[in-house]
Amino acid sequence: ARHVKKLSNRPLLTPGPLRTLSFIALRQPITQAYVVRVRGKLAYTHVKQLRDMDLITDEKIGRTRVLRTTTSFADYFNLRHDPAVMKKELKNVLDLREQLTGPSAR
Predict the structure, then answer these.
(1) pLDDT band at 106 (very low <50, low <70, confident <90, very high)
(2) Which phi and psi angles does 56 have, rounded to 5°?
(3) Which of 12, 35, 50, 99 can bridge 56 by disulfide, Cβ–Cβ 3.0-4.6 Å?
(4) How far, in Å, are 29, 53, 69 from residue 84 at the CA level?
């Protein structure tokens, strides 16, 4: 029973991939190269993990990969599917969180 409880309380993502996901969601569509430049080399692993979980999708345009969130992402986090509306909802949530906990919580 103790082992099952550990599984049920486990978060969907660890902080690193979650930050990468929020960065992509707020700036989509965004190139993978830009995500890696800002988030660091570990972002390659984060992007692969997020793609495997069907939270983001990538489209190859030449040598560049353009990243976007998926409808699974919107459904999981209870957001609208339209990227413009989704960005506004995310910014409102982040602003509300900052107001409640202070700027150091980010």
Answers:
(1) very low
(2) -135, 160
(3) 50
(4) 11, 23, 12
Identify the three-state secondary structure at position 26: helix
As beta bridge partners, residue 56 has 69
Q: 21 burial class (0-12, 13-18, 19+ CB within 10 angstroms)? A: buried
Give the residues across from 68 on adjacent strands.
57
Query: What amino acid occupies position 49?
Result: Q
Element (H, E) at 49: helix 43-52
Query: What digits encode the pLDDT tens for the residues 49-100?
Result: 999 999 999 999 999 999 999 999 988 888 888 888 888 888 887 776 666 6
Model confidence pTM above 0.70: yes
